[in-house]
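User: Teach me something about this protein's shape.
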Amino acid sequence: MEVCTSSLPSAGAPAITAKRYWPFHKVAEVFPAFSDKALRWLRYSRTPGFNACTIKIGGRVLVDVDKFELWVESNADVNRDTTPRKPHKPRVVKKGSPPMGRPRRVVKKVAS
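Assistant: First, the predicted structure itself:
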């Protein structure tokens, strides 16, 4: 029995790397920080860099997992606020002060 080797890459040719394209629900299972709906919203809102991670084939949108991992790592510290926060001061209610919220409307009765 002969083995056909004509379709195999030669030793000098670059190796073929398989890309991983997954639907949103599978990406959401592997990366639990992102729900299926959150991933769809990222594509819909045209979040910078995220659309480069996706391809559309017919009506199906797939995510290139390798590019998605790079996108997550590059955006890890974008919204992180490093300034220290002041401790919250509780509101002290003094006697006679108005209650919080909208003040009540006082209706004056007219004496007849």
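Now, about its shape. The CA atoms of residues 24 and 36 lie 6 Å apart. The chain is about 25% helix and 10% strand. If you'd like, I can walk through any region in more detail.
User: That's plenty for now, thanks!
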